[in-house]
Amino acid sequence: MTPKLSRYATRLPSSPVREILSVSQQPGMISFAGGLPDASVMPTLPVSDSYANVMQYGTSDGEGILKQNLVKWLASEGFECSAEYVMITSGSQQGLDLVSRLLVDEGSEVIVEDPTYLAMLQLLKGLGAKLLPINLGENGVDLESLEQQLKNSQARMIYLIPTFQNPTGYCYTEAERIAVAELIDRYQVTLVEDDPYRVLNFDGVFTRPICHYLKTATWVYLGSFSKMLWPGLRTGFMVAHPALFPWLMRSKQAADLHSNRLGQAIIAEYLQQGLLADHVAKLQAHYKEKRDYMQTLLKTHLPATVRWRLPSGGMFFWLELDQDTRQVLVKGIESGVVVLPGTAFAVEKSADHTLRLSFSQMKPADMEEGIKRLAKVLAQLQA
Amino acid sequence: MTPKLSRYATRLPSSPVREILSVSQQPGMISFAGGLPDASVMPTLPVSDSYANVMQYGTSDGEGILKQNLVKWLASEGFECSAEYVMITSGSQQGLDLVSRLLVDEGSEVIVEDPTYLAMLQLLKGLGAKLLPINLGENGVDLESLEQQLKNSQARMIYLIPTFQNPTGYCYTEAERIAVAELIDRYQVTLVEDDPYRVLNFDGVFTRPICHYLKTATWVYLGSFSKMLWPGLRTGFMVAHPALFPWLMRSKQAADLHSNRLGQAIIAEYLQQGLLADHVAKLQAHYKEKRDYMQTLLKTHLPATVRWRLPSGGMFFWLELDQDTRQVLVKGIESGVVVLPGTAFAVEKSADHTLRLSFSQMKPADMEEGIKRLAKVLAQLQA
């Protein structure tokens, strides 16, 4: 029998990133495709006698000790909030799912950056959202197009990644953050601010969350421990406006009751021991070196017509080319290099001439070999 | 501002069980309300050098080593399946959410036992399902009403808990399992079989999954490690018919990318070390003693008019009374005893004269004191 599926199921696209993960793991393959943190700089797990105490069922919002430590850390990052409105999630992806289901019906309008995070596109398409793109180009976020979208729509939700955006690496300036917050307050739409890359700040740029500046609009702020500590623990978090928090609790209960407690206890222990600040400094130096080396390689090996903005943080270079890039994935794999064409992240604006390259995980020699292979593939496609 | 919410959000009921958890934790309160396993019989976590290897992002379907061990265990339980179609979930609650979203649209008909599992009712109501109840009474599952519902509806999904059902404790006989499977095959509806209590089999009754007997219908089988090992790790699993598995993968990616790997590695290690069989035997003896003691207390302290069937497994007694029980929760809390009225689990059939009592977690002295308090509350309400 063929099962009768829901409209959600039939609309839900599969993820190209996760599907090519297996290709990336073939011997000799060099992959710039994923957004994996470098396992060599993950700390060893802190030891504690308390872990045996978290084996029973727990509370839907998460471990109090983790929430308290998290609130302290967020305050040190310029974002004051109350532990009462913090929820621990199974990675920040789950937070995106929970909040989207609370706000989006079939046909609901949602404002998004164009291009934007792949798995959020996947989710919003599954839910049947009507996506209203705002341009994220070389001059930053297009405030005029944002205001037009807000004025001309009934959007319930705006989804932004203001800090080291995925895929473009763009980081909103202070002035942009304030201007965006003012527009959101004026038009009363719920802001969903996704902030997984915050700690990977190489050049000390301004990163205060847009949620901090909102006066009347409702909002959800999402963060992750995956990029700073251990993604395998699947522990992320949300902070929500008080009007939204009780709904998130119900949605979390129905989704998985609560997040795994051992992961929460381990991260709480790490924060409690005061180890995070030094570790973040180490991460910043480590990834900055990778970014700088990638930039050198791109300048050395790619044609002078390829353009990019040096990302001040995060994990990605976003390249704009004079040639069509849609065949780079298939042709690249034949040559032992995996690169994601920008089309994977496109909402409406063409991304046919763009590529996203991750620099987060690779050894220098592999990175060099990979960029050389990419240069050859581009030359072949050009010919 | 008041956020504009989705229809899912506005339909989603809150969970009375989770809301009274805080009441249950007040000093002196004796609670029969939850379904918590007894922490005193949870094993210590197995030690392994391999845990550092699961700190990176993982695969959406879960750890191979856990899936292989799981398939071996399921085969020993009379259910042959392939690791290829096993997915590890963030507790079996997540499996229910993933599969329901794949099958249920607003207005979709779903066949369920009446009464049934509270959090699944919550979820299906949130999704806007039209629930078609089949009676689960003193004589077991009502096959005639099942066939009527199948014949007269366009149901896409049937949700059953055939083994130590929550809340009634009922366990389908072999003949009932075969008859139900034949009907499901005949009417081609997807079976969602929820089986969290399987190992808590006190009297050696027949428990082979109904999914085993299906010939042509599609199905999803859900299981949990929460009742046999550590609920705090939030590690459950699904086995799916090949036609459904790829859709579950997409849905899992959009929901949380993958489940926490440390929990998976710990459980895999426990299974790999061959420790499960002895532990299950210990659990069965432990909970059987509690069940038998509860039965003695019920016979001793409650009026002779209260009726129940001795549950051959699971965690609950389901009591039928000659009096209205809807005030028992509120009045009980005033007297220091928390008991769930059956109405919380009702679909359509009245459950105004029923109560669910958990016997899984309590010390004998507390259990006795709690049943005495309950007897008093019932007498007061009667008067």
Instruction: Return the string of H and E elements of chain A.
Output: HHEHEHEHEEHEHEEEHHHEHEEEH
Helix content of chain A: 25-40%
Largest sheet of chain A, described in full?
Answer: 8 strands, mixed
CATH homologous group name of the largest domain in chain A: Type I PLP-dependent aspartate aminotransferase-like (Major domain)
Number of domains of chain A: 2
Subunit structure (chains A, B): Homodimer.
Cofactor (chains A, B): pyridoxal 5'-phosphate
GO molecular function, one term (chains A, B): pyridoxal phosphate binding
Domain Aminotransferase class I/classII large (chains A, B): 53-374
Description:
The structure is a homodimer of 383-residue chains. The termini of chain A are far apart. In chain A, helix 5 links the parallel strand 3 and strand 4. The first copy, chain A, has an 8-stranded mixed β-sheet with strand order 2-9-8-7-6-3-4-5, with helices on both faces. In chain A, strands 10-13-12 form a 3-stranded antiparallel β-sheet, with no helix packed on it. Chain A has a two-stranded parallel ribbon with strand order 1-11. The first copy, chain A, folds into 2 domains: 7-42 and 277-382, Aspartate Aminotransferase, domain 1 (Alpha-Beta Complex), CATH 3.90.1150; 49-276, Type I PLP-dependent aspartate aminotransferase-like (Major domain) (Aspartate Aminotransferase, domain 2, 3-Layer(aba) Sandwich). In chain A, 39% of the residues lie in helices and 15% in strands. In chain A, helix 4 packs parallel to helix 5, helix 4 (91-103) packs across helix 8 and helix 10 packs parallel to helix 12 (364-382). Chain A contains 12 helices and 13 strands. Chain A is globular. With 383 residues, chain A is an alpha/beta fold. The longest helix of chain A has 26 residues, at 276-301. The first copy, chain A, has helices spanning 7-11, 16-24, 64-76, 91-103, 118-127, 143-152, 174-187, 245-256, 261-272, 276-301, 328-334, 364-382; strands at residues 30-31, 86-89, 109-114, 130-137, 140-141, 157-160, 190-194, 219-224, 236-240, 316-320, 337-338, 340-341, 354-358. Chains A and B meet through helix 1, helix 4, helix 5, helix 8 and helix 9 of A and helix 1, helix 4, helix 5, helix 8 and helix 9 of B. Chains A, B: It holds the Pfam family Aminotran_1_2. Chains A, B: One of its GO terms (molecular function) is transaminase activity. Chains A, B: This is Aminotransferase class I/classII large domain-containing protein. Chains A, B: InterPro entries: Aminotransferase_I/II_large, Class-I_PLP-dep_aminotransf, PyrdxlP-dep_Trfase, PyrdxlP-dep_Trfase_major, PyrdxlP-dep_Trfase_small. Chains A, B: It comes from Oceanospirillum multiglobuliferum.
